[in-house]
Amino acid sequence: MTADSQGNDLSAVGVPITGVAAFAPVAAENVIDKAALGASPLVLPTAAKRLGLYKVDGGPAPSRETGDAIEFFQKGYTLAGDGTRAVVINLAEQNPNVQKLTEGSEPDENGVIEVSSSLPDNRFILYVVTRYRGGIEKRQIGVAAVTAVEPDQQTRGEVEGQAVTFTWQEDPLFNNAPYWQWGPALPGSPVVATGATAGTPGSFSPTGATVPADLTTLQGMGALGQTTAWTTGQHVVLGDASQAHWDGDSWATGAAA
User: Fold this and answer.
1) Which residues on neighbouring strands pair with residue 129, listed in sequence order?
2) Where are the alpha helices (DSSP H) in 183-234?
3) Highest mean pLDDT among 2-11, 33-42, 153-162, 198-207
4) 240 — phi, psi (to 5°)?
5) Residue 74: predicted pLDDT
6) Within 13 A of 90's CA, how many CA atoms are on the CB side?
7) Max alpha carbon distance in the chain (Å)?
8) What secondary structure does DSSP assign to 101-148, as a single string?
9) With 0-12 CB in 10 A as exposed, 13-18 as middle and 19+ as buried, what is 121?
10) pTM listed for this prediction
11) How far apart are CA 65 and CA 47, in angstroms?
12) Residue 168: which residues within 8 A CB-CB, separation 6 or more?
């Protein structure tokens, strides 16, 4: 739909229907490339551990806090204080992944955890995906830490959850941003190639990237990370089935000679 005569657009209203949260070790191989964040389906790294079901009223609740502004001698001038972003999710499952995240340990050979009074001192890559009615999705990824865990009171016949606060951490893996966000948008937009690897044939990255249609399209994408000429026989196959290689200055037709 598009906006009506009053400027209102029902299709732009976010009505959450489901979602997923997962975490993985802080490592470059667990970062989903920006060009792949909008892929359909979204593929999480092998190391990612899912956190399972949320309570019906416990979906992601983002927060944003800003520190005190810095004031100057001259009135009317201020600098914004340092900010903190977090998201609270009320996790319903008491599965091993949730237990490891919130307790920081796993059961011993007797199935017993020696519970600590403190929160686990851990950092991890957090993935939070929310799907809205109409197929729209919002995807967030960044380094986070557990900064609060508030278990529900046990009530007979009701789901016992625990509200876990994940505070986003600025990290070089994400260009020192608290997190990256894709959407809200409809997944499945073409994944644009951001790199190329020489081979016989070579390949484009990230995984799932759309192969350039022809040589002209490839040339318009720049060097794609190439710095040296490809060696004899190395090439990539383009969308029109032709071959191309990097000659040290630009993309040229055919395999390297």
Assistant:
1) 20, 139
2) 215-219
3) 153-162
4) -90, 15
5) 86
6) 12
7) 75
8) HHHS----TTS-----SSPP---EEEEEEEEETTS-EEEEEEEEEEEE
9) exposed
10) 0.72
11) 31
12) 84, 85, 86, 87, 126, 142, 143, 144, 178, 179
In whole angstroms, give the CA distance from residue 166 to residue 140: 12
Contact 237, 248 (CB under 8 A): no
**b/e string for 62-91 if b means 16 or more Cβ within 10 A?**
eeeeeeeeeeeeeeeeeeeeeebbbbbbbb
Cα–Cα distance for residue pair 1/10, rounded to 1 Å: 7
Spatial distance between the Cα atoms of 209 and 225, rounded to a whole number of angstroms: 15
Report CA dihedral (150, 155, 157, 159) to the nearest 10 degrees. -10
Cis peptide before 41 (omega within 30 of 0): yes
What whole-number distance in Å separates Cα of residue 48 and Cα of residue 62? 21
Whether 81 shows a pLDDT value over 80: the answer reads: no
CA-based nearest residue to 165, from 119, 130, 106: 119
Dihedral pair phi/psi, residue 160, rounded to 5°:
-95, 110
**Rounded to the nearest 5°, which phi and psi values hold at 200?**
-130, 70
Average pLDDT rounded to a whole number, residues 210-215: 92
Judged against a pLDDT cut of 70, whether residue 189 lies above it is answered with no
**C-alpha span between 53 and 19 (Å, rounded):** 9
Tokens of 97: 């992944």
Single-letter code of the amino acid located at 38? G
Task: Note whether 129 and 19 are within 8 A (CB).
Answer: yes
Q: Please report the pLDDT score of residue 144 as a whole number.
A: 97
Alpha-carbon distance 59 to 205, whole Å? 33
